[in-house]
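Supplementary material to the annual report.
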Amino acid sequence: MNIKIVIVFLIFTGGIFSQQLLPIQHDTSRCNQEIILGGTGEFGSTSLRNEFTSKLIFGGEITEPIKQSTFRKHTAINRVGIDLNSELEYRNYNSSMFKKENLGFLVRGGYYAIGSGAYSREAFGLTFNGNSDYLGETINLAGTSFSFLVFQKIGFGVINKVTKSNVSLNLFNISDVYTGRIQKGLVVQNSEGTFLDADLKGNFTHSTSSSYSKGIGVGIDIDYRILLDVDSKKSTFQVLTKNLGVAHYSQGIETYSVDSSYYYMGFKLNQIYGDNSIFSDSLSLLEALNINRKSEKKTIFLPGYIQIGKIVTENYVRKVQSFYGFRMYPSLAFVPQVYIGAHFSVKKWMSVGFQGSYGGFSNLRVGCYFSLSYRKYSVGLASQDIYGAFSKKGYGQSILVRLRWKI
Amino acid sequence: MVSILFSSCHKKKTIWNSDWTAPIVNDTLTLDKYVKTSMITVNSGYYELNFKRTILDLNLTEIVKIPDTTFSKLFGIPFSNYTLAPGTSFVNSIEEHVMNVVDLELKKIRLSKGVLSIKLENPIKTPVIFKLQLPGVYKNGVIFEQIYTAPAGTTSIPGIIEGVVDISGYDMDLTGVNGGTFNKLQSRFTVTTDPNGITTSITNNDITKATITLKDLKIDYARGYFGNKVISDSTTSTIDMLNKIQSGTIDFPASILKFTVTNGLKVPAKTTLTLLENTNSNGSKVTLNVTGQSAFQFGEAFNIDPATGSWSTLVESEKVIEFTSLNSNLENYLENLGAIQKIGYSIQLNPWGNSSGGWNEIFPTSRLTLDVAQTMPLSIGLNGLTLKNTFDFNIKQNTEKTHVISGDLIMIATNGFPIAGKIILDLIGVNGDLIGSIIGSEVLQSSLLGNASSVKGIPVSTTTIHFILSKDILSNLELIKKVTVTSVFNTPNYSTNLSDQKQIPEGAFLGIKLKGSFKLENRY
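Predicted assembly:
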């Protein structure tokens, strides 16, 4: 089954990854049409080791040593994120859009599952160790937030036949959403474990409709390329935005919210025994805990990103060239990520590269890629986290695949 | 394609363990609520039982009951035809009506509540004026009188008038027209044709009819002879807590059990206590027997004098029967710990017939009561007293989902009672089979082993008792249908290592803090 999952993962991520840091080679050569299939499977964390996350994602027992070694790696606030996506794009350079010779058109579609979270060390400890370790202490859950969105995209746009700059207007379908936030979350217990004092303010939202489409959205993708002189050399810079936009939940989503203080020392004997027991049919846990539940329709920002950086030029005269830049997801728990790398053209049909990045869902990561071209076809395979790919002690997994067919 | 591939494989369960601690119960058991109701009193810093219960409480309305009574009176003329000019009286009649009472010879009553409803039927062709007087019925010295005008009618369709009058507060003399009889209410009817009406005639077929109903009568005073009434009963009451005792003994100190018959009626009476018996949870029965007191014997009647005085000066008579360990087997009776208590008694009013000349009286404050009271220092010796209590249990765990794999219920007991106890939980299956037992790790210590509490100034001991929920028990939760809690109590004397009587100090309490410490196997 694991093999199956890995295959699925590769295929899925093969369809997902190509939008990431795998250098997009700026190819100025002319062709009539182009089909690009890309995929990303990306998981990263500042504190969750692979030995832990692999159990979390693929199943298995998270043993006490794994749990404790992972717990020790946590700092006051920690991040985690996942990005699974695949995108298929068709570019047509034959046509002339808006009667302009240099404008072709493109159609793209994709499937995305993107989530991120920030959480306190205590939130991890409470979830995976329980509260017994915190007797006599204060648990601070404030600052914990997460969001996970599954959506699909279809877009239509125009592309500059020379610079390959392009823009598309996209329509999104939202198929699942989970978000949560704890703004205030103090839990105090005495050392005997005989009272619990909590001050909580937060909310949790999830889609409840069985319909595949819970909402729709609109957004744009922009890929703007500029040729600049850097150290007397012509270099191509790219300003890339993906999935920037908003979505509105047309199907109701349910929000649970709480803003209350609790002081609990246990029940009175007559509360748990007899006709007036709190366990009678009339008990509503939500009411007892003062949790409000409401269905609502609301508008959110899509988890789009902005990336600005120098990209690799395919027909560059030298064998080695650099690439660098930064990326940010404005609506996610994702710190701006910077990256830098070197690209080697081993042969005309083969290139490799290495990169380092810092930030994002994780901290420092080192990656590499490998790409081949044969006639009209090219394929790229990359990982942004080589250490994570081979070590259980890594803090993420990453694989990117990109296939291109020039017609 | 991706969706199809994903749906074709199943993720293995992710599993991890976590440890949780949560308070479950925080309560303090005291005898305060019994102190507030005076069931328990304090004497020299120690509690005393001061139990009282009323077995019989009869008031006036229960002894003298007057059902609704209806009188109908028909008035005709002895002539075949008679001409009636306007303003002619053709009925003027005093009547006696017998009240609908049983076994009572009432001469006078006072109504605290009640209504008189009247229906008058006029068969002649001119309106008539009905005047109703009840000569023996008066309020503030004024005789009851009502006047109604009935519309004209015919023999077949009489003119009808109806009315309802509140007669609360009226005195009723029921001695009849001559004043020498009982249960008889007088009435006087006068029927006059309307002075402004027409001249008409009446025949011997024209019947004028009056119907009077006395309804919902409540009285607060009665005089007469209330009959040779016998009130007897054999009441059984169950003290549930005693039913839970399985074995062991209780040693009670000397106590007094007192029966009091209080007579607030000016009626002589005789009372007989026929039986006092209890049966414990093992079926063992003990009857209270008199051993030395000659003035009282079970089954033999004793006289209860009538009350004296009247109204605000009424003085009840009282007869007290006291049982002690000196004149009865009371100690043995109490220590049988009978959950089922049976008391038989009989009270006879006017045992010598109408010896008062019809001068029994009952006043608003008059009551006939039978009370039982027990006074005893709460100085109790428990020797292996075993209580069993069984609860239904229906908790299931799905081991394929997040579930508890082990646990520990931890009770921190702060005991201000000089009582030690051991607690065992027996887990019972559907066929009554014992699935397992959870034995408290420690004996709940008597307060005598503790230090003086800073709160109440009494000795208090603290015991931490663990009830371990093993993996075996938790994995068999669905088989457990009942839980039996067995508590074994002693009042140890730590000098002799024997149980003896211990006084319970004022303010004694048992503080219970129960928390659960559980290991969860989380699965998703």
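Confidence is low (pLDDT under 50) at residues 1-8 of chain B.
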